[in-house]
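User: Look at the shape:
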Amino acid sequence: MHIVKIKGKSILKAYKYRSNYIPDLNLLSKSKIYAPNKQQLNDPFEGLVTSKIFDEYEQIKLCLPFANYKYKINLVNDLLTKIGYLGIYSLSESWDNELLWAHYADSHKGYCIEYELDDFILEKSKTVIFPKIIKIIYSEKPPLYSLEGMDNITYEQLLNILIGTKSIPWKYEEEIRVLFLNKGEQEINSKSIKSIIFGARVSDENINDTITIMSNSLQYYKIEITDNYGLTKKGKTHHGL
């Protein structure tokens, strides 16, 4: 299984901020999620790549038999096409990011799902390249491809770069992605769903609907605002908040 590593350690927890209650929770209660493709995401620069590598190849292909480089360039072209079909499920490393609560959880009226990444992917899927877990790299410039060193790059490395690089303004999201071969509903391991964290402005109706739809075995928390611009979460039982 492809596990994200930071400083030599696996990231065990990841979080999904949501505002849609009934549709999303009905899926989640069946151990399913929806993974959109890159055209459905909110960043128009998804998958952006410079064309230098292709320009270089055009200049030298008539002079030298760079068959292996041609293979790699064709691989890049193929990946650029396939990326449009990938399902991309975006997560964050943190549950207490106030901007994510504002942008993706309806200004604290939504909720946040806690996942255990080690258990996220179904056992039957762990021997193939997809699903794949990657950590986003944030860069001032799009990925630049040059012919130098291209003969050593692998399919997975190219994939990581092409769909795993975003511009600096997105760095606050601390994004982790689960990539699927196609967009749409995806089955996940039910054991990976650990808790639901409700926003500070959540309604009692949404809390009750969530607990009714989801398993009582889950942990439930509610965000509380501290007096130093901080967020904390208070644990609750499934009997009520």
In short: Residues 17 and 112 are 4 Å apart (CA to CA). Residues 67-83 form the longest helix (17 residues).
